[in-house]
Amino acid sequence: MLFMVLCYDKPDSVTLRMETRAAHLSYLKDAGERVKLAGPLMSSGEKPEPIGSLILIDGASEMAVKLFAENDPYHTAGLFAEVEIREWKAGLGHWIPE
User: Fold this and answer.
1) Dihedral of the CA atoms 60, 54, 26, 70 (nearest 10)?
2) Quick one: pLDDT at residue 95?
3) Closest of 66, 94, 75 to residue 5, by C-alpha
4) Three-class secondary structure assignment of the chain
5) pLDDT digits (tens, 9 = 90+) for 52-66
């Protein structure tokens, strides 16, 4: 099943995000093909900054994805103010298998 992990950073946490970015990226890469899509949410305005993360991941269950999210270095470093996990159904896109 595909799940969306939507994470919102705590205010004024760009420095913490940058300090833990390498560990976060390594963690996602270690998940292999389970991670379908991942990237930062950006603020609006002239100088956009990261304000959160979006991950689409293939997981056996919501609990498995919750454990994955809780072990993300961004989460363990205390970056996130809120994390939302929802099952997601692929509807349209070139990358979606038929």
Assistant:
1) -60
2) 73
3) 66
4) CEEEEEEEECCCCHHHHHHHHHHHHHHHHHCHHHEEEEEEEECCCCCCCEEEEEEEEECCCHHHHHHHHHCCHHHHCCCEEEEEEEEECCCCCCCCCC
5) 999 999 999 999 999
